[in-house]
Every structure is written in C-alpha cells, then in structure tokens.
Amino acid sequence: MLTTPGTAQKTVITELERAHTRDTIRVPDIRGLKAIKCDFHMHTVFSDGLLWPEVRVQEAWEEGLDAIAITDHIEYQPHKTYVSGSLNSSYELALPKAKELGILLIHGGEITREMPPGHLNVLFAKDVERINLEDDEAAIMEAYNQGAFIFWNHPCWKKQQPDSCIMFRIHKDLIKNKIIAGIEVFNEIEWYPCALDWCLENNLAVISSSDIHEVTAHYYAMDKWRRPMTLVFASEKTHESLKYALFAGQTVAWFGKYIAGREDLLNELFIQSISIKKNGKTKQGETIINLTNTSDFIFEISSIYDKNKSVVLYPDGFVSLRVKPDERFKISNWFTGSDKNLIIHF
Ligand SMILES: [Zn+2]
Ligand SMILES: [Zn+2]
Fold first, then answer.
1. Is the pTM of the predicted complex or chain greater than 0.70?
2. Rounded to the nearest whole angstrom, what is the distance from the C-alpha of residue 340 to the centroid of ligand 2?
3. Per residue in 258-278, pLDDT tens?
4. Are residues 77 and 205 in the same domain?
5. Domain holding 98: CATH number?
C-alpha cells in the first residue's frame, strides 16, 4: 500500500521507486581464472543508439555484467544534428558512472564499412578520432597501432551477406597477421555457427554481443533470458588482464541457453558447474549418478547411444542419470564446433 499523503507541502512516495539491484550471474572460476561477464558491442545516441552513454553503464551493472565497451559507429552518426561531441565522447561521458559502479569500461568504437571488410569493433582504443580514416586498411591499421583488440562483427549479417556466409580475402589476411583477433559468433539475436569454426581454426576469441541500440530490457525477453555476453577468463578484473585474456582466446560465448567456444574451456566449465555424486548401481550394472547444477547455465544432456535417455539440468537443478560403463553423453546446447557438441564421460 502506498504512503498516505499527509497535509505537509511535500510527501515523497518512495514506494514508486524501483530498487536498483544487481543481478548475480553464477559462472564458476576455471583454472584459477575469474569469469568476467562482458558485452563488447553496444550503441548510444553518439551513433545510432537511443540511450545516453551513462545509462548503458547503469543497465550493464543491473544486468550483472563486469565489463562493457561502448562501440559507437565511427562513420555513422545519424543524430549529429542534435548531438555534438567527438568520437571519444560516449566513453568520456560513461566513465564516471563506470568508476562509481565498478564496471570496467573499455574505450571502443565500431569501424563501419561495406562488406568486405564490413564492421569491426575496436577495443582498448587510445583515441577513436584518429581511427576515422577514409581508407579501410588505414583505419584498421591505426586501431591496431593503438594496441587495440579488433574483432569482426556480425560476419554473416543479412544486410551484408544476404545469401552467403563467407570470409573474404581481407579477413584472412588480417587474421593471419593477428590484426583481427576475434569474431562475433553471436550478434543481437543471430548465431553464426560457421564463425565458431573460423575462431577455433584460427585461435581467435569467440565473441557474443548484444549490439544493443535501445534499452536492453525493451529488446530482450529478460524475464526469461539474460542478455548475450562474452565470458572472458582472466586472472583479474582489470583492463590489462582482460586484454591479455582476449588475445589469448580465453573466451566463451553465451546467448540464451546456448554456450559456444573451445572444447577445453567448455569441458572445464561443465566440470566446475556441476557436482556429481555416485548413488549406487542398477541390476543392469549401470551407475546411478546425481547431478546438481550450481551455476546459471542450462545443460541439455543426452546419451550418445540411447536417444531416449536425456535430461535437462537447470540452474540449481538436480537430476539422476543411469550411466553404463563407457557411456558418453553430449550437451546438445553447448557447441564446440558448428556441428559439434561438448561430449561428457562421467
Ligand atoms: Zn555493425
Ligand atoms: Zn554495432
């Protein structure tokens, strides 16, 4: 019930205000490395987004993220008539709020070109203004020379590759020369399985981004799912450590109920997320095991040999499985390749 307004000149109805709480996202540490929850792709009014930079930080904090990069288009500012400022303004305006809330804010921008090379995100930029060069390669090289981590955005975006999903010569060269060091396997609501293979074949960081332009809670079904994110496994929550881990490819993509990335990282994540207890044997010689999920991941577990044997393990969930000797299971919503799932042997 609301406070009854008194006869005083002013009554504050505090109940109207929403509590600003932060979502807790449970991802285990692996190999002594912390899971840093990141979104490295989003827009503000300084390009074609609808929000002021500071609001992006508040949003990310409430949604449980640890690090974000605001990546406004370098070559596209449709609100320029109303919003002045430089290509560094969104970063500068968001920084005080990020410091206040403990969000790692990464100085970024989006190189926005026709395909090829398409769109590339630049993280850890020193001065985004200097990247605003007409020649594609000159702009990319300027970002590289600033020490930036560069990844290829939405490689199979329908607007740029309506009927195909191919890697162009320029991407191959940039990857070979370690200038492109990551690729989005997921963008907004699009998942690109072929990009996962490209990442794995070339030791690149897998990236999953929102590329959000409006309010995240207005766009995503956040009553059911968290926003897409990249999990970066870093020794500390610092810029240096995050950058090192990105270049080392220590990342996992998380979007909806899906996880995609390197097999060794996914395997380790699975082991650390689940507690396994043996609970006797059946007459047929199967071991009964109890699985409890202590993470926020979802596991769709099914036997490779027996299609009828499948369970879904939700966060805080508990399931029992009968396991034959040497029986293998796959996690069908965890991808270690475009057509490969994580395989588990209990
Ligand atoms: Zn883009
Ligand atoms: Zn974008």
1. yes
2. 28
3. 999 999 999 999 999 999 999
4. yes
5. 3.20.20.140
